[in-house]
Amino acid sequence: MVYRRRVRMSTSESGVYPGLRAAILSLDLVPGEKLSERGLESLLGASRTPIRAALMRLENEGLTQRSGRGWQVTPIDLAEVRAVMEYREAVETAAVALAVERAGDDELAALRALIDMPDGDDEESGLRDGGDFHVALARLSRNKFLADAMSGALTRLSRTRWLEVRTPESRAHARAEHLEIIAAVRSRDSEKAVALVVSHSRGTRDRLLGYLSDERRRLRGRGFAIIESSTTPPPLVAV
Q: Which of 2, 57, 100, 105 has the largest CB neighbor count within 10 A?
């Protein structure tokens, strides 16, 4: 197996899973790319057992799947993206309603500080910070299952979020919406906070699906497997 890109070399067998996961989420290993245990064994300098364990763990997260006798990076499934976005909205609206009741003012100040932290003003920083905000907000619900569910949903959406073209203007717009959500939670206005979360989530959904629809042919030309299944997607597994 010859990969067009290279996974960061692992210095220990414990690094196999995080290395492969990072490569898949950042699209260094593209959707639909074939993976062989033998090829990964040579590439990562690790034995077959931890590689197989990592692939199985990634399968539980929906990032790899079996392909014949081997493996592949899971294709991007537009039906699953829609389903995950619906799931994310349900989770986050429940979480923010509880955060209105349970979050302390000091915690909300810390969440605001998270948004205000300087970043590299690049795509990677924007994706990371946006995800950090939504997971941190879900944790303020004091409900571990909601927080884990939000983290799992964002993992499923990570690859499509990398594909979306992000500009400084779009990042500034997302930041402004995050600040509005925090302000509504701080004012203990549950109805407004939920409405803002719904608006933010659906705006993200429409941009992602619009981009994938418009760019589907071009992305396939780059070797990306983009499908639209008619079956129910596999259950989310929190990470």
A: 100
